[in-house]
Amino acid sequence: MSGHAGHGISRRALLGGTAGAGLMATFPLAAGGLAAARSGDRDRLRIHAREDWNARPPRQPAQLLDHAPDRIIIHHTATPNTKDFSLEQAYRLSRIIQRFHMEEWGWDDIGEQLTISRGGHVMEGRNRTLSAIRAGRHVLGAQLRGHNHHTIGIENEGTYSNAPVPAQLWSSLVDTCAWLCDVYDLDPSQAIRAHRDFGDTDCPGDALYDRLPELRSEVARRLRGTNEHIIWPIPRPVTKSLSAQRLVPPQTRPES
Ligand SMILES: [Zn+2]
């Protein structure tokens, strides 16, 4: 959860979400980059852009940093473990999180860069995320207090204190991490970390946390398995310097 430790989105916020009809169009990512996430004739990873889930505009554009993130942070949303695996539920989730972050916490936009639903649907989070990733750069999010300048956050729908991670979510999480490691030239064994590794929180829950070694292994295997026939269309990061630290704009409440 990108926010206060141990606090998920309130049930009121969750149940109060409007279920507007989401657009079905998906964001076409560069073929090579996406092919990196999956091999052979398997489906390519699809990431649904903000327009698809009908995001509201940010209060101000997110900051685009000139370096790549060096860590991928795994969160859970601490929301109910819904049995609704539909795309509409995924879009609704993104809208609920965005409204919660903007209205309850006064942030400029949804905090995390990427969101994955229990049905395995992957959504763009903070504005400018997809264009930043495609350019090998990093858009400043609000998901890991004190470390946003060098980490990219993935919010996984559900509460994984002890509940198992749905196979659909897991598969998309592997694909997404493989894609990010590919684009940013990251070693999954070093890059993939949990929220709790950086702060006083249970996030992403024991059940998901315990599977991070498996996640790193699967991502590494995916990357090894696809390296030979991938064409890399995505520019490598310009620099990995951390010169853009402390660019977090003042907020009514500090983004975390
Ligand atoms: Zn978290």
Automatic annotation (TrEMBL):
It comes from the Bacteria. InterPro entries: Amidase/PGRP_sf, Amidase_domain, PGRP, PGRP_domain_met/bac, TAT_signal. Residues 57-205 form the N-acetylmuramoyl-L-alanine amidase domain. Gene3D superfamilies: Peptidoglycan recognition protein-like. Residues 45-199 form the Peptidoglycan recognition protein family domain. Pfam families: Amidase_2 (PF01510). One of its GO terms (molecular function) is N-acetylmuramoyl-L-alanine amidase activity. SUPFAM superfamilies: N-acetylmuramoyl-L-alanine amidase-like. One of its GO terms (biological process) is peptidoglycan catabolic process. Belongs to the N-acetylmuramoyl-L-alanine amidase 2 family. This is N-acetylmuramoyl-L-alanine amidase. It comes from Thermomonospora cellulosilytica. The lineage of its organism: Bacteria, Bacillati, Actinomycetota, Actinomycetes, Streptosporangiales.
